[in-house]
Amino acid sequence: MAFQAGGRRPAPRPAPATPETLAYLQDYAALMEAVPHPSVLVDHRWDVVLANGAFRTLFRGAGPHPTAMPDDNFLRFVLFHPDAPAVLAEHEASWCLPMLAHFAAALERHGHDHALQTVRRDIAQDPLMEAAYRQGLPHWVRAVGRAAVEHDGAVRPLHDPDPRRNATECRVVVETPGSLAELEYRRLTLVLRETRRPRRAGSHLRVVPAAD
Predict the structure, then answer these.
(1) How far apart are CA 165 and CA 192, in angstroms?
(2) Phi/psi at 160 (5° precision)
(3) What is the CA radius of gyration of the chain?
(4) Which run of H or of E encompasses 153?
(5) Of the candidates 149, 165, 157, 145, which has an alpha carbon nearest to the alpha carbon of residue 190?
(6) Alpha-carbon distance 207 to 96, whole Å?
(7) Do 100 and 79 form a contact (C-beta atoms < 8 A)?
(8) Cβ(43)–Cβ(12) below 8 Å
(9) Strand 186-193 to strand 48-51: parallel, antiparallel, or no bridges (unpaired)?
């Protein structure tokens, strides 16, 4: 589902530059760096505020892209970067559709946000993604239930590029302590783990049938 979005992404909104906020974020960056699992701090646009070394390592194979690098905007990476499926397994059903659902909710809350409107225009430029967003997404949410949309606690498949590990899935843990909530930030940590159960054949969902 990923495609090459054109143009340049608008500059991220700067965080409140108070000494207390900057000191907190510096200490929070140190905390994140001590976590062995990929961890990223994002705002309501999914602009990346902080990312630890494990996160950068997980996505180090992503090639250059003008608007969708994983440590720049994680939403745009999942939706638009052609290399995203190389790490995010079952890319459409397990990653794209939940992210599209979260994007739709963010757009409803922040309808005048220029960066979110730019994402919406980029979705509209691709007929398959536009059909998935307008027709496929509501059908998918009804079929799988709202629980499949939520990130926190979800177990999602991935391809760990580190040959020393056998991680083939991760549990997504979302945390928003009060100090981050005031900034409209949230932290996602991908707890890498080995697959503990066989996956059912045919679990990949094609939200838009292929043309005959």
Answers:
(1) 9
(2) -75, 120
(3) 17
(4) none
(5) 157
(6) 11
(7) yes
(8) yes
(9) unpaired
The CA-atom distances, in angstroms, between 42 and each of 3, 51, 79, 163, 172 are: 22, 9, 16, 28, 14
Q: Which two tokens stand for residue 64?
A: 């250059």
pLDDT in tens, 146-194: 777 789 999 999 988 777 766 689 999 999 999 999 899 999 999 998 7
Please state, in angstroms and rounded to a whole number, the distance separating the CA atoms of residues 206 and 196: 25
**How many angstroms separate the CA atoms of 3 and 6, rounded?**
9
pLDDT tens for 137-148 read: 988 888 888 777
- The letter for the amino acid at 5 is A
Characterize 159-169 residue by residue with b for buried, 16 or more Cβ atoms within 10 angstroms of its Cβ, and e for exposed.
ebeeeeeebbb
Sign of CA dihedral 27, 30, 36, 42: positive
Q: How is residue 153 written in tokens? A: 């606690």
